[in-house]
Amino acid sequence: MYGGYFGGAVGLMMLAVWGLLDTRDVKSLNAPRTLLVSAANSVAVLTFAMAHAVRWPETIEMLLAAIVGGYGGALIGRARVIRAGTLLLSACISSRFS
């Protein structure tokens, strides 16, 4: 149920639990994690759609924006300047909180 409500962290929780229970490399657990998170999100989408709780025009607009933003972010993220800036910003934030 948590996975359908807040899918952002459920994959990390799965990897954490599996890391405690399994001796395999964490990278090898990415495929089953992706499959299970996708299944949970699919059930949530179907449940919301069947309950008529989805505003379709806004949903389609956000879907298109997410696709454009995902591909655009991936293209921009390849630049060394962006990667270096992200690393610097992350280091500054980490040092501020520690």
Please provide a written account of the structure.
- The mean pLDDT is 88.
- The longest helix is centred in the C-terminal third of the chain and has 22 residues.
- The protein is mainly alpha-helical and 98 residues long.
- Helices cover 82% and strands 0% of the residues.
- It has two domains: 54 residues, no CATH class; 44 residues, no CATH class.
- Helix 2 packs antiparallel against helix 3.
- The protein contains five helices and no strands.
Question: What's the topology here?
Answer:
Blueprint: H1 2-5, H2 7-21, H3 30-50, H4 56-77, H5 80-97
- Main pleated sheet: none
Span between N and C termini? 34 Å
**How much of the sequence is in beta strands?**
under 5%
Low-confidence runs: none
Helix content: over 70%
Number of strands: 0
Number of domains: 2
Would you list the SSEs in sequence order as H and E? Answer: HHHHH
- Global mean pLDDT: 88
Short description:
The protein has 98 residues and is mainly α. The chain has helices at residues 2-5, 7-21, 30-50, 56-77, 80-97. The protein has five helices and no strands.
Task: Pick out its properties.
98 residues; mainly alpha; 0% strand; extended
